[in-house]
Structures are given as structure tokens and as C-alpha cells.
């Protein structure tokens, strides 16, 4: 590697660092509601049903916002969209802290979902368009690691804030952090954009010159059909169902079957995002060293999840719901569930990071990742209700049979489509 290439890559990693901090920061202001909700219920300002509605409002608005932001992200500079998203989410968090009228919580948190949706697509565009292919591939896993790292930061900040100044203070602190980050990220983008391998003006010029090309003429739907991205849609749907369904019901399952102490369950669930980081880098390792196919890598991740969930199903059947599991059984169940969660985040990295990177050459990276992310969260919004209904009707055995079926179908879709993707050259 010559000195010029080293300098380009060094500048590219500075751009990645800004994107990493930005996306990690937004999780401080979006995961905090789940931490604060129990205190809000204890204060009597909302009940459990209303709390669930607030969470659903966020997911619905986030899913819709992802699609919109994906289209805008190919036209508007990432520094404007990312900074606006952070600023808006920060203001909304402060409003959540000072609000005393319950119905406004749904409106505010839905708006927070819209602002939070403004980051991922522009981040993918900035990394895929402003850095070299070597840097973007190296950064792919790191960008996905922002999710567990940001979640852990949110849990820690909120836990400390709630302990000393209450849930309102937690929202206000998180909001203040996001506003500070919005200003810092905007300034940082101005400084690091000089390292971009292409600047915004040349990007616009290139896109305008290629408007007559086939890729730019066709609609997004046609692009999904002609390139095989519809297979990715199938994969991301089952990934969203499994990833977010487990995330929602995992604490309840552990408490019902293995660990009766709620604080211990909470501690375990806080530690799980750390293990998820391993899944992200394991998926990248398989992709870069052995498989060289995003969909086939995802198929492996689904397959490992199916086997791990099979082990959980066996344990659930043996133990039942009496809560009399041994320490070994409890530890094994947590390990298997952590493997599943980590593998699903690894597959998610392939779907929402590595595949969209391939479309940066034709100026569609943002719209592709925005659409896929929107579909993922739409599936996630349905998964929680579906898994809960199945668990209520057929017990946890029924729920895990459903999860295994989801992982097997996801694996089949990814295996079948592994060599059928047609990425722009």
C-alpha cells in the first residue's frame, strides 16, 4: 500500500469515527424509554398498556421514517440529516422529561422515532461514498457495533439518573447529550469531509451525469426485483421477527423459567449487548475470509440460531415453567439465547450495511438501506405481539417452536438466494 493510499484510508477512518459516534449517540436517546417506563408506571402517569402504545408509536414512526430518510439520504448531505436527527431527538427527549400530560407522550415519542430514523441511511451513504472500499468493508462491522454499545450507554446513564434525580431527569440528561452531540457532529463533519474521496459537489455531478443510465431510470421497486434485493427483503423480515421478538420477550422468559429474581435478569439482559458485538465481528470474519457472500453469511447465522434455539426448546420442555432450573441449565439457556441474539445482529449487519454498500456506486446506498431498515422494523412491530400471543396460548414451548421455524425459513431464503444477487458494477 503506497503512502497516498494510506493517507486516503486514514482520512476515511476519521469519517467512519464521526459516523460511529453519531449513531452510537442516538441510542442514548431512543433506548431510554424502555428503562424509564417502569418508573413512569410507578408514578402513575401511564399504565402498562399505555406504555406499550408509546413504544409501538415509536416503532411505527421509525419504520415509516426509515423509508423516507432512505430516499432523502441520496439527495441531502449526510451532515445535515444526521445532525438534524440528533438535534430533534434531543429536543423531544427534553420534552418527554418536562411533560405532565399523558397523551402527549405518544405524540412526542412517535416524533422521536421520526428523528431517530434520520441517521442510519445517511451514515451508510457517507461511509460507502466518501471512503475507499477497503475502509467501508473494514468499518461495516464497527458501525453495527454502535447498537449494543449505544444501548449499554443508555442503560447506564438512565440507571444513574433515575437513582439520583428520577426518570424525568433521565430524559432531560439524555436529551441534553444528544443536542451537544448534534452540534459536535456537524462541526466534525465539516472538518472530516475534506478527507472524502469525493466531495458533495462531485457526487451530485456524477449522479446527474448518470441520470440517463438504466439504474437511475428505474424505480426502487424495479431495482429490488432486477438485482435480487427481494430475497434480501425476505431475509430481513425473518431477521427482524427473530431479533426483536427475542429482545422483547427474553427478560420475561428468563424470569418465568430460570431466574426468579428480576434484578438478576435485568443485569443479564444488560450484559447481552456485549455478546452481540461478537456476533457482528464473527459475521464479518466469515464474510471476508471464507464465504464472500452477504446472503450466504446470513444463512449461516440463521442456521446457528436455529440450532441454538433447538437447545433452548429442549431445556424449556425439560424444565417446564416451574422456575426450578439448575444453575447449569440457566447458564446454558442464557448462553444459547446470547448466541442467537448475536447471530441475528451479525445477519442484520449483512442486510443493512454490507449489501447497501454495493449500491453506493449508483447513488442508491441510502434508499436501499432505508427501505430494508423500514421493512425490518415493520416486521419487528408485529413480532412482539405475535410472539406474546403464541406464548400466551401455547406456552414458551410454542413460542420457541415459532422462533425455530422463523430461523429455518430465514436460512432457506438466504441459501437459495446466495448466488442470485446482481450488484451494480
Structure description:
It is a single chain. The protein has 425 residues and is mostly helical. It has two domains: 7-207, MFS general substrate transporter like domains (Growth Hormone, Chain: A, Up-down Bundle); 210-425, Growth Hormone, Chain: A (Up-down Bundle), CATH 1.20.1250.20. Helix content is 84%, strand content 0%. The chain is built from 15 helices and no strands. The radius of gyration is 21 Å and the shape is globular.
Report a brief summary of the structure:
It contains 15 helices and no strands.
Number of strands: 0
CATH topology of the largest domain: Growth Hormone, Chain: A
CATH homologous superfamily placement of the largest domain: MFS general substrate transporter like domains
Unreliable residue stretches: 209-215
Measured as a percent range, the helix fraction is: over 70%
- How many helical stretches? 15
Structural class label: mainly alpha
Shape from CA axes? globular
The CATH class label of the largest domain is Mainly Alpha
Query: Would you tell me the overall average pLDDT?
Result: 87
Helix and strand pattern? HHHHHHHHHHHHHHH
Report the end-to-end length measured between terminal Cα atoms: 24 Å
CATH architecture of the largest domain: Up-down Bundle
Strand content: under 5%
Radius of gyration: 21 Å
> Mind summarizing the main beta sheet?
none
Number of domains: 2
Blueprint (SSEs and pairs):
Elements lengths: L2 H24 L5 H11 L5 H26 L4 H21 L4 H14 L3 H11 L2 H60 L7 H10 L4 H4 L2 H8 L1 H29 L4 H30 L2 H26 L7 H31 L7 H53 L8
